[in-house]
């Protein structure tokens, strides 16, 4: 039996943008600072309003290529008694990092997500999440995020760096479970246009 080896890691897997990467440019049609960004899919674990156990995060456009959101942690989010589970925190950061791609009008998926857990996070805390894009290189979008306890200036509990890769809409229609893809295309036929993406599946 053979498992993954170091050679399976793609070249350039680092989260450091290459020297030829460019400064991110806020899309001219990006939502104005302060605008609440809708959910990209109502069953999304991170932002879907109809997900029964989801995080129900609502991201807000910031200046530049950046967003913020707040997450009120609850008992359902525990790992250790009374403390948030690290995977829940990573999910929340992945969600806001993904929402940053809206500011570029890019449809992209997470390729790499690296988290640093700096402080334990009690459940019942409100986590203030912020994420911003730092660089773009062809299809690659490099971003960074942080989660602070209690206020946007509160103690830094978790930080993350991530690489997203832009994909065509066919990524979802090809790989997604057929019944869910069919349902969303039936119920929201303009799902791509809803977010005003340029989509050429
Ligand atoms: C109906 C539909 C509705 C949908 C609406 C929802 C929209 C929003 C959804 C939001 C969801 C929320 C978020 C979620 O939850 S996303 C869910 C979690 N993520 C995934 O499922 C992604 C799984 N991975 C993949 O599908 C593929 O690996 C992807 C598509 C990412 C790349 O495979 P692909 O074969 O396409 O591309 P490529 O391998 O040629 O690479 C492309 C470029 O990237 C470079 N590269 C690759 N790896 C690395 C690395 N580690 N470090 C540095 N660079 C790396 C590579 O060199 C190349 O660069 P360049 O050489 O061109 O410069």
UniProtKB/TrEMBL annotation:
<protein>
    <recommendedName>
        <fullName>Acyl-coenzyme A thioesterase THEM4</fullName>
        <ecNumber>3.1.2.2</ecNumber>
    </recommendedName>
</protein>
<dbReference type="GO" id="GO:0016020">
    <property type="term" value="C:membrane"/>
</dbReference>
<keyword id="KW-1003">Cell membrane</keyword>
<keyword id="KW-0963">Cytoplasm</keyword>
<dbReference type="InterPro" id="IPR052365">
    <property type="entry name" value="THEM4/THEM5_acyl-CoA_thioest"/>
</dbReference>
<dbReference type="Pfam" id="PF03061">
    <property type="entry name" value="4HBT"/>
</dbReference>
<comment type="similarity">
    <text>Belongs to the THEM4/THEM5 thioesterase family.</text>
</comment>
<dbReference type="GO" id="GO:0016787">
    <property type="term" value="F:hydrolase activity"/>
</dbReference>
<keyword id="KW-0276">Fatty acid metabolism</keyword>
<keyword id="KW-0472">Membrane</keyword>
<keyword id="KW-0809">Transit peptide</keyword>
<feature type="domain" description="Thioesterase">
    <location>
        <begin position="82"/>
        <end position="150"/>
    </location>
</feature>
<dbReference type="InterPro" id="IPR006683">
    <property type="entry name" value="Thioestr_dom"/>
</dbReference>
<feature type="region of interest" description="Disordered">
    <location>
        <begin position="1"/>
        <end position="33"/>
    </location>
</feature>
<dbReference type="GO" id="GO:0006631">
    <property type="term" value="P:fatty acid metabolic process"/>
</dbReference>
<dbReference type="GO" id="GO:0005737">
    <property type="term" value="C:cytoplasm"/>
</dbReference>
<keyword id="KW-0378">Hydrolase</keyword>
<keyword id="KW-0443">Lipid metabolism</keyword>
<keyword id="KW-0053">Apoptosis</keyword>
<keyword id="KW-0966">Cell projection</keyword>
<dbReference type="InterPro" id="IPR029069">
    <property type="entry name" value="HotDog_dom_sf"/>
</dbReference>
